[in-house]
Backbone:
């Protein structure tokens, strides 16, 4: 799913037709038809117009977004060009301060930058910086 659809626009207890979903997200009706083939469940497949409960639509969007996520090991980055987790090109890793502070202790945020081993494009990854309490 290339778009991140705002599930806050959907009311869980309301039912939506294909046209209403298309209008709500300003998308083509055929996109909604594709979602039905991908697993979006209507209330009753026999009746027309097809109606989808808001709760089912929210569940469908959340499952699609979860399936797109990938777990990274500590030495991996997500390469946006390859669209896969990749390790860094040897000697290209460096740590850069972002200029932002995070957490209750106001710890400076850091980012690891590197080049992809396969396609040599830039990759970034935020890293956790732990600071001991005094």
Residues:
């Amino acid at each position: 799913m290339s778009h991140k659809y705002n599930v806050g626009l959907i009311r869980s207890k309301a039912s939506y037709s294909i046209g209403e979903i298309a209008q709500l997200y300003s998308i083509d009706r055929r996109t909604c038809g594709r979602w039905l083939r991908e697993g979006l469940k209507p209330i009753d497949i026999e009746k027309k117009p097809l109606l989808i409960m808001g709760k089912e639509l929210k569940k469908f969007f959340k499952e699609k977004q979860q399936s797109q996520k990938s777990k990274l090991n500590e030495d991996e980055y997500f390469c946006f060009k390859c669209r896969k987790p990749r390790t860094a090109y040897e000697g290209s890793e460096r740590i850069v301060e972002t200029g932002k502070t995070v957490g209750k202790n106001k710890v400076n945020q850091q980012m690891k930058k590197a080049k992809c081993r396969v396609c040599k494009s830039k990759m970034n990854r935020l890293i956790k910086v732990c600071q001991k309490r005094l």
